[in-house]
Amino acid sequence: MATICVVSDTTTWPSAISVTTSRLRLEPLRVEHAPEAVTLFDDARLHEWTGGAPSSLEELAAKYRRQSAGQSPDGRQGWLNWMLRRLADGRLVGTVQATLHHPDEGGTEAGLAWVIGSDHQGNGYGREGALAMAGWLRAHGVGGLTAHIHPRHEASIGIARALGLSATDTMSEGEVLWRDSVR
What pLDDT digit, counting tens, does each position of 78-96 carry? Predict the structure, then answer.
């Protein structure tokens, strides 16, 4: 059962809880993940499609501190972040995240993202983690899923398709908006 945190008088966001798949444990993000994660994500190749550069330990810890709050400072977005830990050996392999908001049409929608460490790519961890996250979100009342993906990022396009998302004609900052049909 998910713990619900009160954000304001009118909005509640679900809190991330551990989710287990056949090969992965999705652990709710904590600041304590930063020392282990900084090595995993210290790879410029991970920024090929999204821009930016690897974070220092201090930058990553500050980012995780903000993200683990579970909501934006104004409470208008819910933040769900999970670290992906391989069950076989306990190593972190990546992360999945969902940014929740209430669209004008009502309900709750989630913008999804995922990153798998370069040494762990090609093993299906991104797909497995994203499918587990999407299933958890849908079980907790999230009605619409979206993702912004670079049009040449074939691995992320494959994950989006596995999630049941379809490309739209909408582009933002060089990325295509993918959306599911559940509304």
Answer: 999 999 999 999 999 999 9
Does the global pTM surpass 0.85?
A: yes
- Of 4-13, 35-44, 74-83, 115-124, give the lowest mean pLDDT range: 4-13
Q: Which of 181, 178, 160 is nearest to 170 (CA)?
A: 178
What is the DSSP-derived secondary structure letter of residue 69?
Answer: T
Sign for the pseudo-dihedral over CA of 116, 120, 121, 123: negative
User: In the predicted model, what is the mean pLDDT of the chain?
Assistant: 91
Q: Do 95 and 76 meet the contact criterion of CB atoms below 8 Å apart?
A: no
pLDDT on residue 50: 78
Longest distance between any two alpha carbons in the chain, whole Å: 44
DSSP string, 92-146: EEEEEEEEEE--TTSS-EEEEEEEE-GGGTTSSHHHHHHHHHHHHHHHTT--EEE
Q: How far apart are CA 31 and CA 63, in angstroms?
A: 8
